[in-house]
Amino acid sequence: METAESAMPGAIISGTLSPPALGVWQHRHVLDIDDFRKEEIELVFEIADAMAEVLTREVKQVPTLRGKTIVTMFYEASTRTRASFELAAKSLSAGTVSLDAARSSVSKGESLVDNLRTIQALGADVIIMRHPQSGAPYLATQYLDTAIINAGDGWHAHPSQALLDLYTIRRHLGDISKLRIAVIGDIMHSRVARSNIWGMSTMGATVVLCGPPTLIPRGLGEFIEHCQLSRVVVEPKLESALEGADVVMLLRLQLERQQSGLLPSIREYIQRYQLTGRRLSLAKPYALVMHPGPVNEGIEVSPEIAHGAHSVIEEQVSNGVAIRMALLYLVAGGKSR
User: Could you give the C-alpha distances from 231 to 177, 212, 248, in angstroms and in order?
Assistant: First the structure.
């Protein structure tokens, strides 16, 4: 008998989801994963598995979204995320339009909403949006009928990055609920950390947050308690955070943090928080080393660890295409609404 899972590759080609999957997916937009249920995350993974198989073929393309138009609108510079979404759209045979916000009418004084309404009027089925202001994609959904995928908004959220991180972990270690994941670095300014906290918690992992006290958000403990994130803890000492970890996720340290007085010096950060071979030995022998990129080698992580056997940093980039194909399929192809 054909199951929903076994029918998935055929469903991708036809652009439809089986009835069980239709009942799982409940989202018109992808703004963050704080409102995703475990079943929805698992559905994204199942579809990403099928998409990953497509990407191994000689012709890395299926006709699933033929006739759809996907627009990337980035108000911040991006290489990995933008290229990943565009490759994902093209692999699904969608028409793609890449707009440079710096040269758009916004630079001439047009409002964000009016700019996006123009894109919608031109026939966009999905707008993939990155913006330096937290909440900008949420504002867009109040005025547009077009589906919005948040590709990063300020310090707030980066849902597709969190999903590809979780997907990478699952492919290597299986059941995420049994894992201890250490997230190290600039927690305060990281949209990746915020989305991962929600995703990892939803999947049942224990999440240990560690970084300089000045880069840990004030009131984080109260927030964790208020949201009943009982498996999320803050550990100020790096060695304690790393002990027994199955996954070590490093966050990019931006140099302006020192200039703004949040760090005494980059040298001190390296001495206290850089992931070295000696420190990694405190984690599980098979521990994965992850980083959302771009990596500051020699600051967050030593070069030998960044390129060593534990690192899955390049695999994260590769998995990003399959995950973003899955999201585009669910938002633009799966008839869930």
Answer: 10, 21, 16
The answer to whether the pTM exceeds 0.90 is yes
Domains and CATH numbers, the chain: 8-154+319-333 (3.40.50.1370), 159-306 (3.40.50.1370)
C-alpha distance across the termini of the chain, in Å? 27
Among residues 295, 193, 191, the alpha carbon closest in space to that of 234 is found at 193
154 contact partners, CB below 8 Å, separation of at least 6? 131, 132, 133, 134, 135, 136, 191
Alpha helix segments (H runs only) across the chain: 8-14, 19-24, 38-54, 80-91, 112-121, 136-143, 159-173, 191-202, 220-226, 238-242, 256-259, 266-273, 277-280, 303-306, 313-328
Q: How do beta strands 69-74 and 126-131 pair?
A: parallel
Residue 312 CA to residue 285 CA, distance in Å, equals 15
Around Cβ 204, how many Cβ atoms within 10 Å?
A: 13
Taken in order 74, 56, 32, 67, is the CA torsion positive or negative?
positive
Looking at this protein, which amino acid is placed at residue 70?
Answer: I
Please, which residues have CB within 8 angstroms of residue 103's CB and are 6 or more apart in sequence?
none
Closest CA to 126 of 64, 79, 195, 219: 64
Residues in the chain predicted with pLDDT less than 70, given as ranges, are 1-22, 101-110, 256-259, 334-337
User: How many CA atoms lie less than 13 Å away from 61 in the CB half-sphere?
Assistant: 12
DSSP conformational letter for 264 = S
146 Cβ contact list (under 8 Å, min separation 6)? 116, 119, 120, 124, 125, 126, 127
- Residue-wise pLDDT for 113-127, tens only, equals 888 898 899 899 999
State pLDDT tens for residues 291-337: 999 999 999 999 999 999 999 999 999 999 999 999 999 999 754 33
